[in-house]
Amino acid sequence: SKYIKLEDYKVFDYEIPEIFMDFVINKNAVNVTTKLKLVKKNKNTKNLILDGTDILIKKLFIDDSLIEKQYYKQQKNNLKIENIKKDIFLLKIEGIIKPKENTSLLGMYESNGIITTQCEAEGFRRISFHADRPDILSKYTVRIEADKNDYPVLLSNGNVLKENNLTNNRHEIIWEDPYPKPSYLFALVAGKLNCVKDNFITKSNKKVKINIYVEYGDEKYVQHAISSLKKSMKWDEDKYNLEYDLSLFNIVAIRHFNMGAMENKSLNIFNSKLILANSETTTDEELERIEGVIAHEYFHNWTGNRVTCRDWFQLSLKEGLTVFRDQQFTADVHNSEIKRLDDAKFLRRNQFREDSGPTSHPVMPEKYQEIDNFYTTTIYEKGSEIIRMLNKLVKDENFYKGFSNYISTYDGKAATIDQFVDKILEHNKEIDPKKFKIWYKQNGTPKVKFKRIWDQTDEKLTIEASQSNPIKKNLYNDLPLIIPINLAIFCDENKTIEKTVVLKTKKQEFVFRNIRSHLQIPLVTYFREFSSPVEWESDTTFEEKFLILRYEKDFFTLSNTVKVFYKKIILCRLDEKPDHKIENKFISTLISFIKNRDINLSLLSELLSIPTFAEIESEMENLDPLKIYKTIDELNHLFGTKLKEELYFKLQEIETSLDKVWPEGKNERKLIETIWKLLLHSDDEEIKSKIINYVDSNSMTLAKAALNSFSRINCPERKIISNIFFNKWKNNSVVLDSWFSFNASIEIDEKTNSIEKLFENTYFDSKSPNTLRAILNTFVTRNSTFHAIDGSGYKYIAKKIIDFDKLNPIVISRFIKVFSRYNYYSEPYKSNMLETIKQIKKNKLSTNTKEVLDAIIE
Ligand code: HT7
Ligand code: ZN
């Protein structure tokens, strides 16, 4: 079968305790000589099959004797050696690879003259032959040799053992990594890079050298990355008692990179946009994200590297856990309530969308074709939510004890999700590990229903809860999950009872006694702090929801309730039946939020933000996209007009804080973006001239806020500010991507495809996934011409998909999910989309993209 299945897992026939690699970098190719120390474990085999793709074999040796050609067979993706008599031997493979010809950004490739590697998940096999699976852990020694002018910097994992000058202006360096690691954590970088140095003293007083390598000229942008790294190192010591284990930590910034970053042992490689940052070039949100990703990759040193995954079905063991840790970190160093709100929003918008569509899968999938397609928000963010629930269920003391136990038990080994959960639940009597693990096997978003039964005389409130899963195909989906529910019972304005209850069966009753309430029926809010990754339904009326907006303090619940109102208002308008009563009352509530001087301004910005098309799209059925865009524009206009006075007042109040240095002033800057957008949509000319001045601001947050607030405002000023931004930033490729994105959002008219000229722009770099994503993702989520009624937008994007899939399958197989909800669209959009998908399918596509397409139309 074309699927790799979890149930087929078998240990490999050999162990590879040591690897010696020799890289000779020449002009057009790299000679790679690998010596694998092989120890046979399966006495019944005489064969050895290693993975390997696009490697030219020059010679093979076993213990220095040449293997004649008839004893080995090279196929497209592997190498088979037969009749091996020895149990322990050294296999030497001399191969040649061509990084300059590699556009996939996997294995070894070149980016702006710099040679770099990306081995996760299965890229190592494009560098050398290997079992290339995460349960083979080896000690690596690596020699790199290259021309001194072209490649002055030569990096790999671990410590430098030796450095020498050679003849012909060449040099060599030998790296040794003392910690056994799987092949996906191997890395090599060679090129002209400048190094910014710093250091960190660990809690046991060890000095760790920090070196950040960037292209010449970019040195001035690395201070944020350095301070983020040092914060992360300290936090991991304080929170998890985990100390860095080597005396050198390198980070390299690379322009052409498929994902955010990679946690290679002691040599993290980052997409430049996640290293090069300061408040002049980077928004507040990006600064926080960069800090979070640097932390994430650093935290992998223990959760992923020292304890790794047995197989790729366990991917969430390292990714879910490390996301959980980076979310905790950001919550600790910034505002935990806002962070929770942001994480819940992200999950609901992205993971719920994925889980209700054709590519829905469990956090521990049962099968896959291309593992690269499984670096999903389900594995990462839902994986993190599951660990958050575990933490909540066993409480902090047990959680951290279990965690430490997990680390010490599996240090230097490859582990499974089962083993992790067992360690956390080891000393717990209330939670059955077997039942909890169902979270990893179900797909789809579980749904919980609540009903209140109020007995005023007995002062007894009963809450009936039931759970179900909308997806029936997966047999595990019929089993009940263990669901922690944070709830609040509001008896009146001043009396609130907060509780965590645990739903363990399909139906359950929770009884609360001695409830004295003046309300007709006590008001209950569920899943406060978004305590479980589920959807829910309750008997709360809209009248009561207005009360929630008065009584609640929990940021998530407030923002969720506001979202319910926006959705209701949008739905009524889509039905051509605007509910003016609710609209007016809701607007009055928003006014009281604006007038509340104590409210967190980031939260206020959240409450005042009308949902975007992408948010609505992920939650609706029978979608009419053009109508949705129109309704959202109308609402921005209406709310901007009705809230004008209060918004102007708030604007004045916060303007003095705009110049503060991040993280100071970030809430004010976030709010100003929301206010600008609303006011601009209310046809306010005064605000227009005010905003334009900020496009040139020395705060990128304000500059981009100014630029983006014009995205859907068709006026001559839009072109002017776009030009100002372009001319200022055209030589900074990281910043310029925002300009590409802004322009991809602009609708000229319903027929004109405004974005083709972006691909023709001299500054467009077709090899840069960042730019490609900036244009494509924005066009499909923020530009309604994508949904042109004649299907031309879909056809246009189809062509881009086919072209770019040849260059970079990882980027395209992710992007193609834009068509995954075609079934939720109304006609003619649905048929147009389906037709487009079928047309795309007729082309020769990468296996990555094909697997996703097959899921979309079975
Ligand atoms: N662990 C890293 C994943 C990753 C990746 C996966 C497939 C292809 C390219 C990739 N680059 C990085 C990043 C992380 O989650 O930390
Ligand atoms: Zn990760």
From TrEMBL:
Going by the entry's taxonomy, the superkingdom of the source organism is recorded as Bacteria
| Pfam families noted in UniProt | DUF3458, DUF3458_C, Peptidase_M1, Peptidase_M1_N
Q: What class of enzyme is it?
A: hydrolase
* Residue span, Peptidase M1 alanyl aminopeptidase C-terminal domain: 544-855
* SUPFAM superfamilies in UniProt: Leukotriene A4 hydrolase N-terminal domain, Metalloproteases ('zincins'), catalytic domain
Q: Which cofactor does it need?
A: Zn(2+)
Residue intervals of the Peptidase M1 membrane alanine aminopeptidase domain: 226-430
Write the record's keywords in alphabetical order, separated by commas. Aminopeptidase, Hydrolase, Metal-binding, Metalloprotease, Protease, Zinc
Q: Would you kindly state one Gene Ontology biological process term found in this protein's UniProt entry?
A: proteolysis
Annotated catalysed reactions: Release of an N-terminal amino acid, Xaa-|-Yaa- from a peptide, amide or arylamide. Xaa is preferably Ala, but may be most amino acids including Pro (slow action). When a terminal hydrophobic residue is followed by a prolyl residue, the two may be released as an intact Xaa-Pro dipeptide
Q: Where is the Aminopeptidase N-like N-terminal domain?
A: 39-185
Give start and end of each Peptidase M1 alanyl aminopeptidase Ig-like fold domain.
444-538
* GO MF terms, alphabetically ordered: alanyl aminopeptidase activity; metallopeptidase activity; zinc ion binding
Q: Which InterPro entries match?
A: Aminopeptidase_N-like_N (IPR045357), Aminopeptidase_N-like_N_sf (IPR042097), PepN_Ig-like_sf (IPR038438), Peptidase_M1 (IPR001930), Peptidase_M1_dom (IPR014782), Peptidase_M1_pepN (IPR012779), Peptidase_M1_pepN_C (IPR024601), Peptidase_M1_pepN_C_sf (IPR037144)
Protein EC: 3.4.11.2
Per the record, the similarity remark reads: Belongs to the peptidase M1 family.
Please give the NCBIfam families that the UniProt record associates with this protein: pepN_proteo
What name appears for this protein in its UniProt entry? Aminopeptidase N
Please report the organism this UniProt entry assigns to the protein. Answer: Prochlorococcus marinus (strain MIT 9301)
By which gene is this protein encoded? pepN
